[in-house]
Amino acid sequence: MTNKLEKLELQLYKANTTIEMLNDIIENLSDGIYLTDGEGTTLRVNRTYEKMAGLKEKELIGKNMKDLVKEGYFSESASLQVMRIKAPATVMYTVKTGKKLLAKGVPVFDDEGNIKLIVNNVWDLTEIYNLESQTLNQEMPFDKKDKDFVFHSEAMDKVVELALKASKVNSNILILGESGVGKDVIAKLIHDASSCRGGFIKINCAAIPEHLLESELFGYEQGSFTGAKKEGKPGMFELADKGTIFLDEIAELPIHLQAKLLRVIQEKEVIRIGGTKQISIDTRVIAATNRDLEEMVRKGSFREDLFYRINVVPIKIPPLRERKEDIIPLIHYFTNVFNKEYHFDKRFTQGTLDLFYRYGWKGNVRELQNVVERLIVVTDKKIVEEEDVVEILNLKNIGGISAKGGNLKEAVKQLEIKLIKDALKIHRSTRGAAKKLGIDQSTLVRKIKKYKLNYDAILHQDDAL
Questions:
Q1: What is the pTM of this model?
Q2: Domain 322-459 is of which CATH architecture?
Q3: By its UniProt entry, which PROSITE patterns does this protein fall under (predicted)?
């Protein structure tokens, strides 16, 4: 009996020692740790997170993330995204204290496939976050809630990882990607995560008339041209001193201004129009374009030396159609944003989400945001259905299926049948087809039964029935 008690005491001692060691590790991690259960209820936060967020653990323990978001503690939650998509998700959000944080939530599943725990790794983006950040152009794909954003795809994970690495050095950065992918959001993320003490100045090189662009960039002295302010005016490079200047649409910069920009970047000094004084600047340059600058260099419409100056750290953001895993999390995010803004409580059916997933999104995230807002504003029903999406996205003739002369529900039905058959023929299993379609396997099986599709016949036919 004594030996058994001694063994139990030894096991208990080892267990307690392991728990203490794990507690010490969690409390001394440089990353913030935020743990919730599978329902989103806060279980624990470490000291690092308390310091990052400016909140105490006792304020959060036992509270559900839905309530914390509703009460304004957080603008968004990675845990809620994980619960919705049952997969890892990354969110940049604002705490009620004004802190800007980046959280990556990872689900832990039990043996039955249910989420039992969500582990959030959190990074501080706002030790030097500047609420006075200036911008000349407000045309941003994420222009709500201080430009929070969410993503789930591995592709965007790599983009953000590279952006955070680039933020630690002062090298010039070139962000590449189609219109609407969120180039300005990544530029702002780099600035927020950097040690820059100045502001974030954005200037759209395509939005300002050529005759004004030079004075906006470099400033001017008094009386340098008709209409100039008599006291003169500092340019954007001066205003961005000790901070970041974001040159969006840099491919549209006229060739004669490219030469002047090159000199400013090389010499780290600017001379105002009509002036002779050299003004020293310490400004990080982030440029962005949706054009092929290398091709422009070959054609002579963009200076090669300038290209190499700004292309020290290139960051390419893939289009939304190449990272479809981000579509559903973004829909949930924008739905919450616009429901809150317009005081609605609207939701999308699984069928509408399926259509969103299959759509090409030529306008990328900006188009997705626009469509979600439009549907929430113009749809009278609380539940947005497939026919509403078909009408908004003009999907009345897609994949050879026409709704002309017929009703939209029938068009949606025919579209779903075609997509299901195509996916089954390619992947030859409901599991693979469901993954391709972005839906659960059980949902796909229900749809096969609903439409009375012959699974075996589909697999052995060359053409869709």
A1: 0.66
A2: Orthogonal Bundle (1.10)
A3: PAS, SIGMA54_INTERACT_1, SIGMA54_INTERACT_2, SIGMA54_INTERACT_4
